[in-house]
Amino acid sequence: MARAGLGEAWRCLFANDFDPLKAKTYAANWGSDDFTPGDVWALEPTQLPGRADLAWASSPCQDFSLAGERAGLAGGRSSAFWGFWRLMAALNGEGRAPRAIVIENVKGLLSSRGGADFTALCAALGEQGYRFGALEIDAAAFLPQSRPRVFVLAVREAPPPSLIGESPLQSSAVRAARDRLPSDLRALWINWSPALPAQRNSDLAGVLEPDDQARWRTPQQTRALLAQMNPSHRAQVEQAKSSGERRIGAVFRRIRVENGRRVQRAEVRFDGLAGCLRTPRGGSSRQMLLVIEHGKIRSRLMSGREGARLMGLSDEYILPKAATGALHVVGDGVAVPAVRYLALHLLEPLLQRQVAQAAE
Length: 360
Known about the structure:
Layout: H1 2-6, E1 15-17, H2 20-30, E2 35-37, E3 54-57, H3 80-93, E4 100-105, H4 108-111, H5 116-127, E5 131-138, E6 148-155, H6 172-180, H7 183-186, H8 219-227, H9 231-242, E7 247-258, E8 261-269, E9 288-293, E10 296-301, H10 304-310, H11 323-331, H12 336-359
Parallel strand pairs: 1-2, 3-4
Antiparallel strand pairs: 4-6, 5-6, 7-8, 7-9, 9-10
Helix pairs in contact: 10-11
């Protein structure tokens, strides 16, 4: 999805993932000539060709997720980042360091282990000659999905003043993470300030399949779902029902602790956004849809194609046939328009400037 967001002006030199289903999906859409499957720790610098303008890293987010164990960069699958960074350091030693690096992850990256992980990340960037800064971008700026993510952008050369300054995308969490850095790392920080995204003009209803093509759950299953809602969420449903309008809600089932007991709750939102897509085997259950019309309440699971649309993928993008597989692929991804936004307003101006300076 990072490749889709960068667009046709970019040429991919090398791609990697250890998940066989993602590898198969990548090959179906892009071919496999530039793709090497397997553990990033098993890769060698000799497998990475030439010198890239950009290296993009989206390491597994489970250890950063608020729903996970919060083990940080040292724990579990998120340590894949250090496998990636081992390669970046080797390329730098060979004079082939990428001109820019983007590291994308969940917001927990900023605060994991009290900020120690983010400090370690910034120290690693600084040791290899990079300056860096971070932005928090929510896919809801472009798509009807609430999906806040942190994008760390690191460069080797000084950026133009036009790209530096205060920005709402430097969220309070980003500023707090920056301010926790020791002084030597703060001296390397860049306050990225791209032009702000245009206002989103789509909502959840616009990405859904027609009702007659959907697979609806039984009335009994819908009643059971409603019974899992606490009074405040059930009141939202009743308010939507009494409006007389067609209303669509996105529903997650979560485990909440109430009076010392773990209780499964269904939580609904009617703000025109889906909740953050996750893999079906992630910390939350698969996302559902609640459709209220003419006093009738129906429910169903979200389809894989609907999930892909919520990530900004076109209907021509080839997905695994099974909904669980499709949602696994897209739920682990990065929103395509967020990547395009970064490319248009930061990456391409930066790199075009560097190329022009090198030619002078």
